[in-house]
Amino acid sequence: MERIKKSKLMSFIRRIFAGRMIFLEITIMLLILSIAFFVRVLPLRWGLYLSEFDPWMQYKEMKFIVDRGWTGFIDFFNWHDYDSWYPYGRDVGRTAFPGVPFLAAFLYHIIHGLGFNVDTLELAAFMPTIMGIVTTIIVFFLGREVGGKPAGFLAAFFIALSSASIQRTHFGWFDDESVSIPFMLLGFLSYILAIKKDRTWKSLIIYSIVAGFSLGYVTATWGASRFPIAFIPVFTGVLALIGRYSRKLLVSYSITVLLYGSIAVMVPKLGLGFLREATMVVSIGVLVYLLSFELSRFKPEILKNLPHYVLIVSIIGFISLISIGSLGLPGTKFLSTVIPTLRSVLPIVISVAENQVSTWAIIFSDSGFKLFLVPAGIYYLAKRRENIDIFLILLTVFVVYFASTMVRLTILAAPAITIVASCALSEILRGLAHNLTLTYSRKKRVGQIGIEYYVITPILITGLIMFSFIPSTYGVRYSISPIDTAYVPPTIVSSSMPIRSSVPDWLKTLSWMRDNLPPNAVVASWWDYGYWITIVGNHTSIVDNATLNTTQIGEVAYAFMSDEETAYRVFRKLGATHVLIFITHTVYTTSSGNVPMLLGYGDEAKWVWMLRIANQVGYNFTESDYLDENGRPTDKFWAETLLGQLIPYKPQQIYTGVTGHVYQPSTLNHFRLVYQSSEPYYSYAYVYIYEIVD
Fold first, then answer.
1. How many CB atoms lie within 10 A of CB 138?
2. How far apart are CA 567 and CA 557, in angstroms?
3. Does domain 505-692 bear CATH number 3.10.180.10?
4. 579-605 in b/e burial notation, b at 16+ Cβ within 10 A?
5. What are the pLDDT digits (tens) for 575-610?
6. pLDDT (tens digit, 9 = 90+) per residue, 167-193?
7. Domain segments of the chain as ranges
8. Using H for helix, E for strand and C for coil, what is the string for 467-507?
9. DSSP letters along 595-618, please?
């Protein structure tokens, strides 16, 4: 009897999986998703914290919505936050993208409605990891569309262990990119499927709607949404230009554009004015271009060349509108991804490391040896020239260029690089297998090919790729391993220092602020720490990471770069009651002896940008008076600026020809030290809080 039951069970399994590899494929996919999850969750080893700075503001917005129930989604747009940008506050509903907190709050309400209790901070910290898994799944389907299932699995594996992807989807990275990238890829995949040959009208409409809503949600989440909503029109226009216009292309494009355009104008930060911005004008222009193809079909003898005329007039009109200033352009920050030299006029932008121009070392570190497979992948795609091939070629060219102009945009390039590289590798391996079969086939005789072609080539490629996954703990000195990328503590745990250990000074400081500062205290600091002070320290700040008001940031910079009396008047005008500074310092052991030195990760290095931003808003400082030809602060910085006097470690000659930074706190009239995170020489990071006294 038992044997009969087993026989029936096996028969049932064979009927399900007969002639297919679905069981093996599901197993492989689950393994890849498991890898993606466990690598991205590594920062949990240091505790439940969010990473960097911006995720804390996203969490505050999510908490605001959750605390008010379902009506919080409406209340969000009327929220004026007086805990930041004192004394004016911030109109959060009109200056923040709602996509990330809305999605998190929606998930919270759904989970809570099902009867499960979930902590808001836990959900916020885990959500990027979940979105990283979603990204892996979507990349699989994109890769499968390009090169079949082998390419799909390779693409999923590559993105699961992509350093660029992990940087923005690891545990705690509760920010725009973690949500925007999967929605962007879903929009791309849906659009490609919508315009696929032999697509029925019903499925075309469904896929187009999904594409429109997905890309629309990206516009509600990320400022860089300008890229995907401009790329879709460019790609569609190229298809029409090379003779691939069809009525289905027109319908699919129209649905997609109308949907993401409608969603975009409903985002308060974008508004109706977004319709006259260049990115949306391009979308509308390509729609008119496609309509001209449709019109040319009715009376070919009269309208045969209409698309050409429309294209020429559109290009001339676009350039003319830009020239006379009638066409809205994205902000300088976004334009600088196209023309990087524009970034030099915005010190506040280039003061952030992730906004710097990328080096090839950074791009290689984020992409690994997959980058070397991209040219081969583009070659294979160019040979076929299907719609999706053209899509990926254009996408790869654009995103690699943008990644080279701004460090943070390597996340934008990661999916394209992994998909094209997986296509190349699958084609190479498929070709090797095919030739190997022919070589040893009895039915067909072929010329003898060296064994190195069949053995060395795949071993070399696989070896290079696997080498890039080996973490530094295994003796690799210069590691580009994604495991090393993930296995780092949250920024607040390491006190914003690039080390893989806990430096609790910021956590101690924020805890002290919550428990000891008066409820009405207003803390002035450099803008980098504003979110931590407001959200974790639970006190009002004057400037923060939103960098909304350059003038107010310039005022704080002016105060730090001025003498004590001037700084006192400026801070009092801004309403500050306390001033916070952050310093990094250590003691090096040399052949001459111990040398205490500032490390350059805190305000002891950021003051240069304070000087430049103060100059940007109208205060005249001569940089050479404060910075010598060797890049070191001059005596004028240490003696005549408030920041130089507040920093307790002053330059002093330790040995002959050796200068160090020795603990010598200044005695000031209006700034009284009330807190230090660690005793001198006992830490790497030090946070000091001064009370402003009359």
1. 25
2. 10
3. no
4. bbbbbbbeeeeeeeeebbbbbebbbbe
5. 999 999 999 999 998 877 889 999 999 999 999 999
6. 999 999 999 999 999 999 999 999 999
7. 199-329, 505-692
8. HCCCCHHHCCCCCCCHHHHHCCCCCCCCCCCCCCCCCCHHH
9. EEEE-SSSHHHHHHHHHHHHHHTT
